Amino acid sequence: MQTITETQPKLKKEINTIQLWSLAVGMVISGEYFGWNYGWQTSGTIGFLFSTLLVTLMYVTFIFSYTELTAAIPKAGGPFSFATRAFGPIGGFIAGFATLVDFLLAMPAIAYALGAYIHFLIPQIPVEETAISMYVIFIAVNWFGIKEGARISLIVTLLSVGEILLFMGLIVFNFKSDNFFAHNPPTISFGSIFAGIPFAIWFFVAIEGVAMVAEEVKNPQKTIPRGYISAIITLVILALGIMILSAGVGDWRKLQQIDHPLPEVLAMVFGHESGWTKIFTSLGLFGLIASFHGNTISYSRQIFALARENYLPNQLSFLNRYQTPHWALIAGGLIGVLAIYSGKTDQIIVMSGLGAVVMYAISMVSLLVLRKKEPDLERPYKTPFYPIFPYLALVLALFCTAAISYFYPLLSAIFFGLLFFFLILFVLFGFKYIKSNIG
């Protein structure tokens, strides 16, 4: 079993329920602002609605199940810690790899969207320069500790949720069902629904990142379930509201390939020069900033946890005087900057989504195994409708993995090829050392 010894670095407990809710919603809320609209390109509005409902079911059952693990094993490693406890080092490695892909690739996609929003407002500012500056700013912000970061997250997330509610209020009376159903193929195929899955995942991906701050939560057994469940309810309402209303205000085909769909929706209603359009685009930065900030916390804690257990170079687990894993912040930032220059937001989203669903599947199997392997483990929160919820989440996660692999074979081959390559290296060079440190 994994343990944290007295000599290992430890994180400070600073986060309360409302801050945890804000981190969970904040990590995800950028997915309401961009990314999901690429699903219309592959599926149309009707097919993508079915994609979204399928993915929503997966996330609801997943979060109600995942919360049991997070409350029972509040470790910064999140899925890595759960899988290591259930399956040992190899299971932990696979979960850790999938989680890193999930968060490290979500970051450059969000950064690129931030750049696109600012470029929409001020065309003279290049997208890439803005994206890179976001890494510099938020690595600096998080350098000074989780307490300060959580306060910033709460403020920015509240502003973001308020802005999305305002957005829906501004366009709801311009919604026309004819627009929503227009330009769709005469029949909706299963293939089109499945092809939209990675973009529907973008509505919710990264909510699992709250597990990475579990060591920093006050009274985690009560705080984590409250924060997680309230967050998933918030996100379901926002996701369905934005997607359905946005498709009904005009020709949705104009929105299916851009990184700033919400300002364009308002432009359809009020015009590009409208004050509402300009104001919303400016305020829209809050949602992207909330997610960028939250995911900065998540990726750094995942790198920290893997390094603390020697899955990554141990130096990445070092803490500065603010109890922040500063080298982990920098390392993840460097990877993100390299990814920004690919300029392929849709492909980055697919890869991030694939890492996420693989991690969801491993987490659900870990839950089922630990129920049998450690029946006496203290579980302050237990999954409702067990074992239906975790089995349903597992089946849907595996289904989404298969769908992404089928429709995006090259990206999937890269993901699984890298996983296999690094797993071989781990077995050859790292397994014995890691195993000797897990008692």
How would you characterize the overall build of this protein?
With 439 residues, this protein is mainly α. It has one domain (17-430): Amino acid/polyamine transporter I (Up-down Bundle). 72% of the residues lie in helices and 0% in strands. It contains 17 helices and no strands. The chain has helices spanning 17-28, 30-33, 38-72, 79-87, 89-121, 127-142, 146-171, 177-181, 190-195, 197-201, 220-247, 261-270, 275-308, 326-340, 345-373, 388-407, 409-436. Helix 3 packs antiparallel against helix 16.
Number of helices: 17
CATH topology: Amino acid/polyamine transporter I
Quick one: biggest sheet? none
Question: Structural class, from secondary structure content?
Answer: mainly alpha
User: Can you tell me the CATH superfamily?
Assistant: Amino acid/polyamine transporter I
Instruction: Give the C-alpha Rg.
Output: 21 Å
Low-confidence sequence ranges: 1-6
* Net shape: globular
Domain tally: 1
Arithmetic mean pLDDT: 87
Oligomeric state of this protein: single chain
End-to-end separation: 5 Å
User: Which series of helices and strands comes N to C?
Assistant: HHHHHHHHHHHHHHHHH
| Number of E-state strands | 0
Name the CATH class.
Mainly Alpha
What percent of residues are in strands? Answer: under 5%
CATH architecture: Up-down Bundle
Question: What percent of the residues sit in helical stretches (DSSP H or I)?
Answer: over 70%
